[in-house]
Write a structure and sequence with these properties.
alpha/beta; Alpha-Beta Plaits
Length: 642
Amino acid sequence: MTKKISPITVAGIIFTILFFLLTLKSPRSVDETIESLLVDYRFLLRNILNSPPVPKNILVVAIDDKSLEKYGRWPWNRSVQAGLVNRILSGNPSVIAVDIFYSERETEGRDSELGRSFKQGNEKIVIAAGFDMDTSGVKETPDYLLDSAILEVKNHSRLKNKTLEVYNFKSAIYEIYSNAILGHVVSPPDMDGKLRWEHLYIQYRDDYYPSLSLMTAAIAMKKNIHDITIHGAKGVELGETFIPTDLTGRMRINYIGSENTFRYVSAMDVLDDKINPSVFTDKIVFLGTSAISTYDFMVTPFSARIPAVEKNATVVENILNGRFIKSVPVSMVSILIIVSGVFLSFLLPAVRAVFGISVSILMILFFAAFNQYLFTYQNTYLNFIYPFSNLLLISIVFAVYKYFLEEKKAKQLKKMFSSYVSPKIVAELIDNPDMAGLGGYRREVTVLFADIAGFTSFSESREPEEVVTMLNEYFKEMTDVIFKWDGTLDKFVGDEIMAFWGAPVAQPNHAELAVRCAIEMSERLDKLQRRWKAEGKYILNCGIGINTGVVLIGNIGSVDKKMDYTVIGDHVNLGARTEGMTRKYDTRILITQYTYEKIAALNGNNIIGHIDMPVTEVDTVKVKGKKVPIKMFSVIPKPHIH
Protein backbone atom coordinates (compact mmCIF):
# COMPACT_ATOMS: atom_id res chain seq x y z
CA MET A 1 0.00 0.00 0.00
CA THR A 2 1.51 3.32 -1.08
CA LYS A 3 1.90 6.04 1.50
CA LYS A 4 -0.37 9.04 1.01
CA ILE A 5 1.48 12.20 -0.03
CA SER A 6 1.07 15.02 2.47
CA PRO A 7 -0.83 18.17 1.38
CA ILE A 8 2.23 20.10 2.59
CA THR A 9 4.40 18.25 0.07
CA VAL A 10 1.90 18.85 -2.73
CA ALA A 11 1.67 22.56 -1.92
CA GLY A 12 5.47 22.80 -1.62
CA ILE A 13 6.05 21.20 -5.02
CA ILE A 14 3.48 23.52 -6.62
CA PHE A 15 5.15 26.59 -5.09
CA THR A 16 8.59 25.35 -6.15
CA ILE A 17 7.47 24.87 -9.76
CA LEU A 18 5.80 28.29 -9.75
CA PHE A 19 8.88 30.15 -8.52
CA PHE A 20 11.13 28.11 -10.80
CA LEU A 21 9.06 29.30 -13.78
CA LEU A 22 9.05 32.88 -12.48
CA THR A 23 12.84 32.74 -12.22
CA LEU A 24 13.10 31.66 -15.85
CA LYS A 25 10.54 34.22 -17.01
CA SER A 26 11.88 37.03 -14.79
CA PRO A 27 8.82 39.31 -15.15
CA ARG A 28 9.71 42.99 -15.22
CA SER A 29 6.77 43.86 -12.96
CA VAL A 30 8.47 41.90 -10.16
CA ASP A 31 12.15 42.51 -10.94
CA GLU A 32 11.83 46.28 -11.22
CA THR A 33 9.58 46.76 -8.19
CA ILE A 34 9.69 44.23 -5.35
CA GLU A 35 13.08 42.67 -6.13
CA SER A 36 14.66 46.03 -6.90
CA LEU A 37 13.37 47.44 -3.62
CA LEU A 38 14.97 44.51 -1.81
CA VAL A 39 18.23 45.30 -3.60
CA ASP A 40 17.95 48.86 -2.26
CA TYR A 41 17.74 47.50 1.28
CA ARG A 42 20.81 45.38 0.58
CA PHE A 43 22.67 48.55 -0.42
CA LEU A 44 21.65 50.29 2.79
CA LEU A 45 22.62 47.33 4.95
CA ARG A 46 25.89 46.92 3.06
CA ASN A 47 26.88 50.49 3.94
CA ILE A 48 26.23 49.71 7.58
CA LEU A 49 28.29 46.52 7.50
CA ASN A 50 31.05 47.42 5.05
CA SER A 51 30.83 50.87 3.53
CA PRO A 52 32.96 51.20 0.37
CA PRO A 53 35.72 53.86 0.27
CA VAL A 54 35.08 57.20 -1.43
CA PRO A 55 37.37 57.64 -4.45
CA LYS A 56 39.84 60.52 -4.26
CA ASN A 57 40.65 60.67 -7.96
CA ILE A 58 37.13 61.72 -9.06
CA LEU A 59 35.60 65.13 -8.42
CA VAL A 60 32.58 67.04 -9.66
CA VAL A 61 32.63 70.66 -10.80
CA ALA A 62 29.02 71.58 -10.08
CA ILE A 63 27.04 74.42 -11.54
CA ASP A 64 25.25 74.88 -8.24
CA ASP A 65 22.84 77.41 -6.80
CA LYS A 66 25.49 79.88 -5.72
CA SER A 67 27.02 79.71 -9.23
CA LEU A 68 23.65 80.63 -10.73
CA GLU A 69 23.24 83.48 -8.24
CA LYS A 70 26.44 85.11 -9.55
CA TYR A 71 26.50 84.16 -13.22
CA GLY A 72 22.80 84.08 -13.94
CA ARG A 73 20.24 81.44 -14.66
CA TRP A 74 20.98 78.28 -16.59
CA PRO A 75 21.93 77.76 -19.35
CA TRP A 76 24.89 80.10 -19.21
CA ASN A 77 26.22 81.62 -22.38
CA ARG A 78 28.85 79.42 -23.96
CA SER A 79 31.65 81.93 -23.53
CA VAL A 80 31.33 81.51 -19.75
CA GLN A 81 31.27 77.74 -20.16
CA ALA A 82 34.35 77.91 -22.40
CA GLY A 83 36.15 79.83 -19.67
CA LEU A 84 35.13 77.19 -17.12
CA VAL A 85 36.43 74.37 -19.32
CA ASN A 86 39.69 76.21 -20.00
CA ARG A 87 40.22 76.80 -16.29
CA ILE A 88 39.78 73.06 -15.56
CA LEU A 89 42.04 72.09 -18.47
CA SER A 90 44.78 74.32 -17.09
CA GLY A 91 45.07 71.90 -14.18
CA ASN A 92 45.84 69.01 -16.57
CA PRO A 93 43.16 66.51 -15.53
CA SER A 94 43.25 62.99 -16.93
CA VAL A 95 39.79 63.43 -18.44
CA ILE A 96 36.85 65.84 -18.35
CA ALA A 97 33.32 64.45 -18.70
CA VAL A 98 30.89 67.21 -19.68
CA ASP A 99 27.43 66.08 -18.61
CA ILE A 100 25.68 68.91 -20.46
CA PHE A 101 23.58 68.87 -23.65
CA TYR A 102 24.18 71.32 -26.48
CA SER A 103 21.19 70.61 -28.66
CA GLU A 104 20.39 74.21 -29.70
CA ARG A 105 22.58 76.82 -31.34
CA GLU A 106 23.35 79.96 -29.35
CA THR A 107 25.51 82.08 -31.71
CA GLU A 108 28.06 80.87 -34.16
CA GLY A 109 30.79 82.79 -32.38
CA ARG A 110 30.06 81.49 -28.90
CA ASP A 111 29.47 77.95 -30.18
CA SER A 112 32.84 78.08 -31.93
CA GLU A 113 34.51 79.43 -28.80
CA LEU A 114 33.24 76.51 -26.73
CA GLY A 115 34.19 74.13 -29.54
CA ARG A 116 37.75 75.46 -29.50
CA SER A 117 37.93 74.82 -25.76
CA PHE A 118 36.88 71.22 -26.33
CA LYS A 119 39.39 70.86 -29.14
CA GLN A 120 42.06 72.19 -26.83
CA GLY A 121 41.28 69.21 -24.58
CA ASN A 122 43.33 67.02 -26.92
CA GLU A 123 41.32 63.80 -26.65
CA LYS A 124 40.64 64.40 -22.95
CA ILE A 125 37.07 65.65 -23.14
CA VAL A 126 33.92 63.50 -23.41
CA ILE A 127 30.61 65.28 -24.06
CA ALA A 128 27.10 64.01 -23.38
CA ALA A 129 25.38 63.16 -26.64
CA GLY A 130 21.60 63.45 -26.78
CA PHE A 131 19.49 60.59 -28.12
CA ASP A 132 15.78 59.91 -27.73
CA MET A 133 13.05 57.50 -28.82
CA ASP A 134 11.26 60.03 -31.02
CA THR A 135 11.00 58.76 -34.58
CA SER A 136 9.77 62.06 -36.03
CA GLY A 137 12.19 64.39 -37.75
CA VAL A 138 14.99 61.86 -37.89
CA LYS A 139 18.20 63.49 -39.14
CA GLU A 140 21.12 62.10 -41.05
CA THR A 141 23.86 60.68 -38.91
CA PRO A 142 26.73 63.23 -38.81
CA ASP A 143 30.19 61.97 -39.60
CA TYR A 144 31.60 63.02 -36.23
CA LEU A 145 29.06 60.77 -34.47
CA LEU A 146 30.24 57.74 -36.43
CA ASP A 147 33.71 58.32 -35.02
CA SER A 148 32.28 57.49 -31.56
CA ALA A 149 30.67 54.17 -32.57
CA ILE A 150 32.00 50.92 -31.08
CA LEU A 151 33.67 48.93 -33.82
CA GLU A 152 34.28 45.59 -32.10
CA VAL A 153 31.08 43.59 -31.55
CA LYS A 154 31.13 39.85 -30.83
CA ASN A 155 28.12 37.53 -30.70
CA HIS A 156 26.21 40.15 -32.63
CA SER A 157 23.23 37.83 -33.06
CA ARG A 158 22.62 37.84 -29.30
CA LEU A 159 22.14 41.63 -29.35
CA LYS A 160 19.17 41.50 -31.68
CA ASN A 161 16.00 42.92 -30.11
CA LYS A 162 17.73 43.12 -26.70
CA THR A 163 19.85 46.27 -26.76
CA LEU A 164 18.13 49.57 -25.99
CA GLU A 165 17.45 51.19 -29.35
CA VAL A 166 17.14 54.94 -29.92
CA TYR A 167 15.87 56.63 -33.07
CA ASN A 168 16.96 60.25 -33.01
CA PHE A 169 20.27 62.04 -32.40
CA LYS A 170 19.43 65.41 -30.86
CA SER A 171 22.84 67.06 -30.67
CA ALA A 172 23.76 68.62 -34.00
CA ILE A 173 25.96 71.67 -33.38
CA TYR A 174 28.97 70.87 -35.48
CA GLU A 175 31.35 73.41 -33.92
CA ILE A 176 30.89 71.81 -30.51
CA TYR A 177 30.48 68.09 -31.15
CA SER A 178 32.97 67.65 -33.94
CA ASN A 179 35.87 68.46 -31.62
CA ALA A 180 35.15 66.03 -28.77
CA ILE A 181 34.51 62.40 -27.95
CA LEU A 182 30.83 61.58 -27.47
CA GLY A 183 29.01 59.35 -25.00
CA HIS A 184 25.29 58.84 -24.58
CA VAL A 185 23.46 59.60 -21.34
CA VAL A 186 20.28 57.65 -22.00
CA SER A 187 19.26 56.33 -18.57
CA PRO A 188 15.74 54.85 -18.39
CA PRO A 189 14.76 54.27 -14.76
CA ASP A 190 13.07 51.17 -13.40
CA MET A 191 9.29 50.97 -13.10
CA ASP A 192 9.40 52.55 -9.64
CA GLY A 193 11.34 55.56 -10.96
CA LYS A 194 14.72 54.64 -9.49
CA LEU A 195 17.87 54.49 -11.58
CA ARG A 196 19.75 51.26 -10.86
CA TRP A 197 21.30 50.41 -14.22
CA GLU A 198 23.75 51.92 -16.69
CA HIS A 199 23.27 51.14 -20.38
CA LEU A 200 26.93 50.80 -21.33
CA TYR A 201 25.91 51.01 -24.96
CA ILE A 202 22.81 51.75 -27.00
CA GLN A 203 21.87 50.98 -30.58
CA TYR A 204 21.38 53.83 -33.01
CA ARG A 205 20.55 52.59 -36.48
CA ASP A 206 23.16 49.95 -37.27
CA ASP A 207 25.79 51.07 -34.77
CA TYR A 208 26.37 50.84 -31.02
CA TYR A 209 27.43 53.86 -29.01
CA PRO A 210 29.09 53.88 -25.58
CA SER A 211 27.79 55.74 -22.58
CA LEU A 212 29.42 58.90 -21.29
CA SER A 213 30.66 56.96 -18.27
CA LEU A 214 32.14 54.11 -20.31
CA MET A 215 34.05 56.51 -22.58
CA THR A 216 35.23 58.55 -19.60
CA ALA A 217 36.55 55.41 -17.91
CA ALA A 218 38.24 54.35 -21.15
CA ILE A 219 40.13 57.65 -21.49
CA ALA A 220 41.05 57.56 -17.79
CA MET A 221 42.57 54.13 -18.46
CA LYS A 222 44.49 55.51 -21.48
CA LYS A 223 42.18 53.64 -23.86
CA ASN A 224 40.04 54.76 -26.77
CA ILE A 225 37.00 53.61 -28.73
CA HIS A 226 39.07 50.92 -30.47
CA ASP A 227 39.77 49.26 -27.10
CA ILE A 228 36.08 48.67 -26.38
CA THR A 229 34.56 45.35 -27.41
CA ILE A 230 30.92 44.36 -26.93
CA HIS A 231 30.28 40.69 -26.09
CA GLY A 232 26.62 40.18 -26.88
CA ALA A 233 24.45 39.45 -23.83
CA LYS A 234 27.54 38.95 -21.64
CA GLY A 235 29.41 42.20 -21.09
CA VAL A 236 31.84 44.80 -22.36
CA GLU A 237 35.56 44.38 -22.63
CA LEU A 238 37.62 47.52 -21.98
CA GLY A 239 41.28 46.71 -22.45
CA GLU A 240 42.06 44.13 -19.78
CA THR A 241 38.86 44.86 -17.86
CA PHE A 242 35.68 42.88 -18.47
CA ILE A 243 32.46 44.56 -17.34
CA PRO A 244 29.58 42.08 -16.80
CA THR A 245 26.17 43.11 -18.07
CA ASP A 246 22.72 41.62 -18.38
CA LEU A 247 21.24 40.46 -21.68
CA THR A 248 20.41 44.05 -22.69
CA GLY A 249 23.88 45.47 -22.06
CA ARG A 250 23.08 47.04 -18.70
CA MET A 251 25.53 47.21 -15.82
CA ARG A 252 24.07 47.26 -12.31
CA ILE A 253 25.36 50.47 -10.72
CA ASN A 254 27.22 49.83 -7.48
CA TYR A 255 26.31 53.05 -5.68
CA ILE A 256 28.67 54.20 -2.96
CA GLY A 257 26.19 56.30 -1.03
CA SER A 258 23.76 59.20 -1.21
CA GLU A 259 24.30 62.57 -2.89
CA ASN A 260 27.57 64.44 -2.29
CA THR A 261 29.47 61.19 -1.87
CA PHE A 262 32.09 62.48 -4.30
CA ARG A 263 34.04 65.66 -3.76
CA TYR A 264 32.20 68.68 -5.18
CA VAL A 265 33.75 71.95 -6.36
CA SER A 266 31.53 74.93 -7.14
CA ALA A 267 31.79 76.22 -10.72
CA MET A 268 31.67 79.75 -9.33
CA ASP A 269 34.82 79.10 -7.28
CA VAL A 270 36.60 77.78 -10.37
CA LEU A 271 35.59 80.81 -12.48
CA ASP A 272 36.55 83.22 -9.70
CA ASP A 273 40.00 81.62 -9.33
CA LYS A 274 39.24 80.55 -5.77
CA ILE A 275 40.28 77.00 -6.68
CA ASN A 276 43.88 76.28 -7.58
CA PRO A 277 43.92 74.43 -10.95
CA SER A 278 46.33 71.89 -9.41
CA VAL A 279 43.27 70.42 -7.70
CA PHE A 280 42.36 68.92 -11.09
CA THR A 281 45.76 67.45 -11.89
CA ASP A 282 45.43 63.81 -12.99
CA LYS A 283 41.85 63.79 -11.76
CA ILE A 284 38.72 62.54 -13.47
CA VAL A 285 36.60 65.67 -13.57
CA PHE A 286 32.84 65.69 -14.16
CA LEU A 287 31.25 68.95 -15.18
CA GLY A 288 27.51 69.10 -14.61
CA THR A 289 24.63 70.83 -12.89
CA SER A 290 23.44 70.40 -9.31
CA ALA A 291 21.28 73.49 -8.88
CA ILE A 292 17.65 72.74 -8.11
CA SER A 293 16.40 74.88 -11.00
CA THR A 294 18.25 72.74 -13.57
CA TYR A 295 16.10 69.70 -12.78
CA ASP A 296 18.87 67.27 -13.68
CA PHE A 297 18.30 64.84 -10.83
CA MET A 298 17.69 61.13 -10.41
CA VAL A 299 16.34 58.75 -7.77
CA THR A 300 18.71 56.05 -6.52
CA PRO A 301 18.64 53.38 -3.78
CA PHE A 302 20.28 55.91 -1.45
CA SER A 303 18.62 59.16 -2.40
CA ALA A 304 15.42 60.64 -3.76
CA ARG A 305 17.34 63.50 -5.42
CA ILE A 306 20.89 62.98 -6.62
CA PRO A 307 22.51 65.02 -9.42
CA ALA A 308 22.70 62.96 -12.61
CA VAL A 309 26.36 63.83 -12.92
CA GLU A 310 27.08 61.91 -9.72
CA LYS A 311 25.46 58.79 -11.17
CA ASN A 312 27.88 58.98 -14.09
CA ALA A 313 30.78 59.49 -11.71
CA THR A 314 29.71 56.36 -9.81
CA VAL A 315 29.75 54.23 -12.96
CA VAL A 316 33.27 55.42 -13.77
CA GLU A 317 34.39 54.58 -10.23
CA ASN A 318 32.89 51.08 -10.59
CA ILE A 319 34.75 50.45 -13.85
CA LEU A 320 38.11 51.82 -12.71
CA ASN A 321 38.06 49.91 -9.42
CA GLY A 322 36.42 46.76 -10.75
CA ARG A 323 33.52 47.11 -8.30
CA PHE A 324 31.06 45.27 -10.49
CA ILE A 325 27.99 43.59 -9.03
CA LYS A 326 28.08 40.14 -10.57
CA SER A 327 24.82 38.24 -10.85
CA VAL A 328 24.40 34.61 -9.85
CA PRO A 329 23.33 32.80 -13.05
CA VAL A 330 19.65 32.01 -13.48
CA SER A 331 20.54 28.31 -13.68
CA MET A 332 22.06 28.42 -10.19
CA VAL A 333 19.07 30.32 -8.78
CA SER A 334 16.77 27.72 -10.34
CA ILE A 335 18.73 24.86 -8.77
CA LEU A 336 18.64 26.64 -5.41
CA ILE A 337 14.85 27.01 -5.61
CA ILE A 338 14.31 23.38 -6.63
CA VAL A 339 16.66 21.84 -4.05
CA SER A 340 15.53 23.96 -1.10
CA GLY A 341 11.86 23.72 -2.06
CA VAL A 342 11.83 19.94 -2.53
CA PHE A 343 13.87 19.41 0.64
CA LEU A 344 11.48 21.48 2.75
CA SER A 345 8.38 20.01 1.06
CA PHE A 346 9.32 16.44 2.01
CA LEU A 347 10.99 17.21 5.35
CA LEU A 348 8.24 19.23 7.01
CA PRO A 349 5.43 16.63 6.84
CA ALA A 350 7.76 14.08 8.47
CA VAL A 351 8.62 16.16 11.53
CA ARG A 352 6.78 17.75 14.43
CA ALA A 353 5.56 21.33 14.21
CA VAL A 354 8.12 22.95 16.51
CA PHE A 355 11.06 21.25 14.81
CA GLY A 356 9.69 21.93 11.33
CA ILE A 357 9.08 25.61 12.02
CA SER A 358 12.55 25.89 13.55
CA VAL A 359 14.13 24.34 10.45
CA SER A 360 12.11 26.64 8.18
CA ILE A 361 13.09 29.75 10.12
CA LEU A 362 16.74 28.73 10.14
CA MET A 363 16.72 28.09 6.37
CA ILE A 364 15.04 31.43 5.68
CA LEU A 365 17.41 33.32 7.98
CA PHE A 366 20.43 31.53 6.53
CA PHE A 367 19.35 32.38 2.98
CA ALA A 368 18.78 36.04 3.89
CA ALA A 369 22.13 36.27 5.69
CA PHE A 370 23.98 34.46 2.89
CA ASN A 371 22.33 36.69 0.30
CA GLN A 372 23.44 39.80 2.16
CA TYR A 373 26.94 38.38 2.66
CA LEU A 374 27.33 37.83 -1.09
CA PHE A 375 26.15 41.37 -1.79
CA THR A 376 28.20 43.06 0.93
CA TYR A 377 31.50 41.21 0.76
CA GLN A 378 31.53 39.56 -2.67
CA ASN A 379 29.73 42.21 -4.79
CA THR A 380 27.45 39.42 -5.96
CA TYR A 381 23.74 39.72 -6.56
CA LEU A 382 21.59 36.68 -5.83
CA ASN A 383 17.89 36.96 -6.57
CA PHE A 384 16.10 37.21 -3.25
CA ILE A 385 12.38 37.32 -3.86
CA TYR A 386 11.86 33.96 -5.60
CA PRO A 387 13.90 31.60 -3.35
CA PHE A 388 12.79 33.50 -0.24
CA SER A 389 9.11 33.53 -1.20
CA ASN A 390 9.22 29.82 -1.99
CA LEU A 391 10.69 28.95 1.41
CA LEU A 392 8.36 31.35 3.19
CA LEU A 393 5.16 30.11 1.54
CA ILE A 394 6.03 26.46 2.12
CA SER A 395 6.73 27.28 5.77
CA ILE A 396 3.48 29.21 6.16
CA VAL A 397 1.45 26.37 4.61
CA PHE A 398 3.19 23.95 6.97
CA ALA A 399 2.59 26.13 10.03
CA VAL A 400 -1.08 26.77 9.18
CA TYR A 401 -1.75 23.16 8.29
CA LYS A 402 -0.02 21.86 11.41
CA TYR A 403 -1.76 24.44 13.56
CA PHE A 404 -5.26 23.52 12.42
CA LEU A 405 -4.47 19.81 12.27
CA GLU A 406 -2.91 19.74 15.73
CA GLU A 407 -5.55 22.09 17.08
CA LYS A 408 -8.14 19.61 15.87
CA LYS A 409 -6.20 16.71 17.38
CA ALA A 410 -5.79 18.63 20.63
CA LYS A 411 -9.54 19.21 20.86
CA GLN A 412 -10.20 15.55 20.14
CA LEU A 413 -7.69 14.44 22.76
CA LYS A 414 -8.98 16.93 25.30
CA LYS A 415 -12.55 15.85 24.70
CA MET A 416 -11.59 12.19 24.84
CA PHE A 417 -9.29 12.20 27.87
CA SER A 418 -10.40 15.14 30.03
CA SER A 419 -12.75 12.89 31.98
CA TYR A 420 -10.25 10.02 32.14
CA VAL A 421 -6.98 11.55 33.26
CA SER A 422 -5.56 14.50 35.13
CA PRO A 423 -5.11 17.89 33.40
CA LYS A 424 -1.36 17.30 33.56
CA ILE A 425 -1.69 14.15 31.44
CA VAL A 426 -4.11 15.88 29.04
CA ALA A 427 -1.57 18.66 28.50
CA GLU A 428 1.16 16.12 27.86
CA LEU A 429 -1.02 14.29 25.35
CA ILE A 430 -1.79 17.54 23.52
CA ASP A 431 1.93 18.32 23.31
CA ASN A 432 2.68 14.74 22.25
CA PRO A 433 -0.44 13.42 20.49
CA ASP A 434 1.40 10.33 19.23
CA MET A 435 1.55 9.06 22.80
CA ALA A 436 -2.18 8.43 22.80
CA GLY A 437 -1.89 5.49 20.43
CA LEU A 438 -5.61 5.59 19.69
CA GLY A 439 -5.49 2.85 17.10
CA GLY A 440 -5.21 0.00 19.64
CA TYR A 441 -1.98 -1.46 21.01
CA ARG A 442 -0.58 -3.72 23.74
CA ARG A 443 1.29 -2.38 26.71
CA GLU A 444 2.13 -3.31 30.26
CA VAL A 445 -0.04 -1.37 32.69
CA THR A 446 -1.21 -1.58 36.28
CA VAL A 447 -4.96 -1.76 36.86
CA LEU A 448 -6.78 -0.80 40.05
CA PHE A 449 -10.29 -1.82 41.09
CA ALA A 450 -11.98 -0.26 44.11
CA ASP A 451 -15.37 -1.60 45.23
CA ILE A 452 -17.55 -0.56 48.17
CA ALA A 453 -18.13 -3.43 50.59
CA GLY A 454 -21.78 -4.22 51.29
CA PHE A 455 -23.05 -1.58 48.96
CA THR A 456 -26.09 -3.58 47.84
CA SER A 457 -27.55 -3.90 51.33
CA PHE A 458 -26.68 -0.27 52.08
CA SER A 459 -28.41 1.03 48.96
CA GLU A 460 -31.51 -1.06 49.58
CA SER A 461 -31.93 0.21 53.15
CA ARG A 462 -31.44 3.93 52.40
CA GLU A 463 -33.28 6.60 50.50
CA PRO A 464 -31.99 7.02 46.93
CA GLU A 465 -30.99 10.64 47.59
CA GLU A 466 -28.80 9.65 50.53
CA VAL A 467 -27.21 6.81 48.56
CA VAL A 468 -26.38 9.06 45.59
CA THR A 469 -25.08 11.86 47.82
CA MET A 470 -22.68 9.57 49.72
CA LEU A 471 -21.67 7.74 46.55
CA ASN A 472 -20.85 11.01 44.78
CA GLU A 473 -18.91 12.23 47.80
CA TYR A 474 -16.92 9.01 47.85
CA PHE A 475 -16.34 9.01 44.07
CA LYS A 476 -15.14 12.63 44.12
CA GLU A 477 -12.53 11.97 46.77
CA MET A 478 -11.31 8.79 45.10
CA THR A 479 -11.20 10.39 41.63
CA ASP A 480 -9.20 13.35 42.94
CA VAL A 481 -6.63 10.94 44.35
CA ILE A 482 -6.44 8.96 41.09
CA PHE A 483 -5.82 12.16 39.13
CA LYS A 484 -3.30 13.34 41.70
CA TRP A 485 -1.24 10.20 41.02
CA ASP A 486 -1.66 10.65 37.24
CA GLY A 487 -3.91 7.64 36.82
CA THR A 488 -6.38 7.08 34.00
CA LEU A 489 -9.95 6.78 35.25
CA ASP A 490 -11.47 4.07 33.12
CA LYS A 491 -15.04 3.87 34.36
CA PHE A 492 -17.54 3.66 37.20
CA VAL A 493 -19.47 0.40 37.28
CA GLY A 494 -22.14 0.86 39.90
CA ASP A 495 -20.16 1.42 43.10
CA GLU A 496 -16.91 0.15 41.57
CA ILE A 497 -14.07 2.33 40.28
CA MET A 498 -11.66 1.11 37.60
CA ALA A 499 -8.41 2.95 36.87
CA PHE A 500 -5.05 2.14 35.33
CA TRP A 501 -1.50 3.49 34.96
CA GLY A 502 0.96 3.22 32.10
CA ALA A 503 -1.33 4.55 29.37
CA PRO A 504 -2.06 6.66 27.42
CA VAL A 505 1.23 8.23 28.59
CA ALA A 506 4.01 5.76 29.27
CA GLN A 507 4.86 5.62 32.99
CA PRO A 508 7.80 3.32 33.83
CA ASN A 509 6.81 3.35 37.54
CA HIS A 510 3.12 2.66 36.88
CA ALA A 511 2.96 -0.13 39.51
CA GLU A 512 4.34 2.08 42.25
CA LEU A 513 2.03 4.96 41.26
CA ALA A 514 -0.99 2.65 41.51
CA VAL A 515 0.02 1.36 44.97
CA ARG A 516 0.71 4.87 46.24
CA CYS A 517 -2.65 5.97 44.88
CA ALA A 518 -4.37 3.05 46.67
CA ILE A 519 -2.71 4.01 49.96
CA GLU A 520 -3.89 7.62 49.65
CA MET A 521 -7.37 6.44 48.62
CA SER A 522 -7.40 4.45 51.86
CA GLU A 523 -6.30 7.51 53.83
CA ARG A 524 -8.99 9.66 52.21
CA LEU A 525 -11.58 7.01 53.02
CA ASP A 526 -10.44 7.06 56.66
CA LYS A 527 -11.16 10.79 56.78
CA LEU A 528 -14.53 10.32 55.14
CA GLN A 529 -15.40 7.60 57.62
CA ARG A 530 -14.56 9.86 60.56
CA ARG A 531 -16.76 12.60 59.13
CA TRP A 532 -19.61 10.22 58.35
CA LYS A 533 -19.41 8.89 61.89
CA ALA A 534 -19.52 12.42 63.31
CA GLU A 535 -22.54 13.17 61.13
CA GLY A 536 -24.26 9.97 62.16
CA LYS A 537 -24.19 8.55 58.70
CA TYR A 538 -23.60 5.02 57.52
CA ILE A 539 -19.87 4.28 57.20
CA LEU A 540 -18.83 2.93 53.83
CA ASN A 541 -15.75 0.76 53.39
CA CYS A 542 -14.02 -0.52 50.28
CA GLY A 543 -11.58 -3.06 48.94
CA ILE A 544 -8.86 -2.21 46.45
CA GLY A 545 -7.28 -4.77 44.13
CA ILE A 546 -4.21 -4.07 41.98
CA ASN A 547 -2.57 -6.13 39.23
CA THR A 548 0.16 -5.51 36.62
CA GLY A 549 0.43 -7.06 33.18
CA VAL A 550 0.23 -6.65 29.41
CA VAL A 551 -3.24 -5.67 28.21
CA LEU A 552 -4.93 -4.46 25.04
CA ILE A 553 -5.54 -0.69 25.03
CA GLY A 554 -7.65 1.35 22.66
CA ASN A 555 -10.95 3.00 21.83
CA ILE A 556 -13.53 0.31 22.10
CA GLY A 557 -17.21 0.61 21.36
CA SER A 558 -19.47 1.72 18.54
CA VAL A 559 -17.76 4.05 16.11
CA ASP A 560 -20.86 6.10 15.41
CA LYS A 561 -22.42 5.89 18.89
CA LYS A 562 -20.10 5.69 21.84
CA MET A 563 -16.41 4.93 22.24
CA ASP A 564 -14.47 4.37 25.46
CA TYR A 565 -10.72 4.45 25.90
CA THR A 566 -10.19 1.34 28.01
CA VAL A 567 -8.08 -1.72 28.70
CA ILE A 568 -9.11 -5.35 28.25
CA GLY A 569 -7.45 -8.71 28.77
CA ASP A 570 -6.70 -11.43 31.35
CA HIS A 571 -4.70 -9.11 33.56
CA VAL A 572 -7.65 -6.72 33.76
CA ASN A 573 -9.86 -9.61 34.86
CA LEU A 574 -7.22 -10.69 37.39
CA GLY A 575 -7.24 -7.18 38.86
CA ALA A 576 -11.01 -7.35 39.32
CA ARG A 577 -10.76 -10.78 41.00
CA THR A 578 -7.97 -9.48 43.25
CA GLU A 579 -10.27 -6.73 44.50
CA GLY A 580 -12.90 -9.38 45.30
CA MET A 581 -10.39 -11.27 47.47
CA THR A 582 -9.92 -8.30 49.85
CA ARG A 583 -12.99 -9.52 51.84
CA LYS A 584 -11.55 -13.02 52.12
CA TYR A 585 -8.26 -11.81 53.57
CA ASP A 586 -9.75 -8.93 55.53
CA THR A 587 -7.52 -6.26 53.94
CA ARG A 588 -8.31 -3.05 52.21
CA ILE A 589 -5.50 -3.24 49.61
CA LEU A 590 -4.46 -6.43 47.88
CA ILE A 591 -1.84 -6.64 45.13
CA THR A 592 -0.72 -9.54 42.94
CA GLN A 593 2.83 -10.86 42.72
CA TYR A 594 3.12 -9.21 39.29
CA THR A 595 2.67 -5.77 40.83
CA TYR A 596 4.93 -6.70 43.73
CA GLU A 597 7.70 -7.90 41.40
CA LYS A 598 7.35 -4.79 39.21
CA ILE A 599 7.91 -2.49 42.17
CA ALA A 600 10.78 -4.63 43.41
CA ALA A 601 12.42 -4.58 39.95
CA LEU A 602 12.30 -0.80 39.82
CA ASN A 603 13.20 -0.01 43.43
CA GLY A 604 15.03 -3.06 44.76
CA ASN A 605 13.63 -5.61 47.17
CA ASN A 606 13.16 -3.04 49.90
CA ILE A 607 9.79 -1.95 48.59
CA ILE A 608 8.39 -1.52 52.05
CA GLY A 609 10.45 1.56 52.64
CA HIS A 610 9.71 2.86 49.18
CA ILE A 611 5.94 2.77 49.50
CA ASP A 612 6.13 3.47 53.22
CA MET A 613 3.76 0.63 54.11
CA PRO A 614 4.27 -2.93 55.33
CA VAL A 615 3.59 -5.54 52.67
CA THR A 616 2.62 -9.06 53.71
CA GLU A 617 2.24 -12.15 51.59
CA VAL A 618 -1.19 -13.55 52.47
CA ASP A 619 -1.68 -16.53 50.17
CA THR A 620 -0.95 -18.31 46.93
CA VAL A 621 -4.11 -18.77 44.95
CA LYS A 622 -5.13 -20.61 41.84
CA VAL A 623 -6.86 -18.15 39.53
CA LYS A 624 -9.18 -19.20 36.75
CA GLY A 625 -7.36 -19.08 33.41
CA LYS A 626 -3.90 -19.23 35.01
CA LYS A 627 -1.95 -22.50 35.18
CA VAL A 628 0.51 -21.33 37.82
CA PRO A 629 -0.77 -20.21 41.24
CA ILE A 630 -0.31 -16.51 41.95
CA LYS A 631 0.93 -14.98 45.19
CA MET A 632 -1.17 -12.28 46.80
CA PHE A 633 0.22 -9.49 48.99
CA SER A 634 -1.63 -7.30 51.44
CA VAL A 635 -0.61 -3.68 51.68
CA ILE A 636 -1.81 -2.85 55.18
CA PRO A 637 -2.80 0.81 55.44
CA LYS A 638 -3.21 2.80 58.60
CA PRO A 639 -6.01 1.69 60.94
CA HIS A 640 -9.45 2.71 59.82
CA ILE A 641 -12.83 3.05 61.44
CA HIS A 642 -15.28 0.15 61.19
